[in-house]
Amino acid sequence: MDLIKVNGIVVKSSDYKDNDRLVTLVTFELGRITCLARGVKKPKAKLKYAQEVFNFGEFMLAKKHDSYTLTDCVQTDSFGPITKDIEMYYCGCMMMDILSRISSLESQKGMLAQTIRMLSKLCYDEEAPQRVTTEFLKECLRQNGYDIDYNHCSICGTELTDNAYFLDSAGLICPSCANKSRDIPVNINILKYLQKGEGSEEIAKVSNAYLAYFLEELVGIKANPMYFGNITYGE
Ligand SMILES: [Zn+2]
How far is the CA of 164 from the centre of ligand 1 (A)? Predict the structure, then answer.
């Protein structure tokens, strides 16, 4: 049995047997791993806090074959304020969900660091959840090789100043380059929000659903539709 130390965040925690929890961590050192937290459901358990979603810190694990057991934890941040506002909380849960699934693809050290930074913005800088969501989804796309240009047609390079289209093999394109029966229309209000962050909270919400759609089409990660709503793209 080896003892190891990893730095990361709890993205999921579920019941296991009577008193235990199975904890999914996204870590800088090992990517996404699952560990067993023994006895943490007992009322006086010392490591009760360690298995809670959003707990960020240093985790001490005992490794035997391919399984890990939590032995200790030094908390850096619990992002406590996140439970004070439902919109904030949903935004945080969406980030944990996507971070977890994206981390199964390959090492996402950059994305983990960015997620911690965005959780801080959400909890301590009072940044609006919809704005944090936009930044998070754009960052997920960028870190996975899709640095989308929201300002220019990715085929002809012309500046996008009117309604545009989305084509999964190219990105955002102008009406002249688009095949209107195939490509997904992105109206000017959504485009303006994606370019400059201008627009109402409602526009921000719809724009985020588009970003979630881009993430699904380009990276293959499907975000939780409960958070993004059921948007009919285009019309
Ligand atoms: Zn074009």
Answer: 9
Kindly state the average pLDDT of the residues 118-141: 96
Sign of CA dihedral 32, 27, 36, 83: negative
Write the class of the CATH domain 82-228.
mainly alpha
pTM score over 0.90: yes
Query: Which residues in 131-165 are b (16+ Cβ under 10 Å) and which e?
Result: bbbbbbbbbbbebbebebebebbbeeeeebeeebb
pLDDT per residue as tens digits for the range 202-223: 999 999 999 999 999 999 998 8
pLDDT digits (tens, 9 = 90+) for 34-54: 999 999 999 899 999 999 999
- CA of 212 from ligand 1 middle (Å) equals 23
**C-alpha 152 – ligand 1 centre gap (Å):** 8
pLDDT at res. 140:
96
Q: Do domains 2-77 and 82-228 have the same CATH topology?
A: no
Q: What is the CATH number of domain 2-77?
A: 2.40.50.140
Where do the structural domains in the chain lie, given as residue ranges? 2-77, 82-228
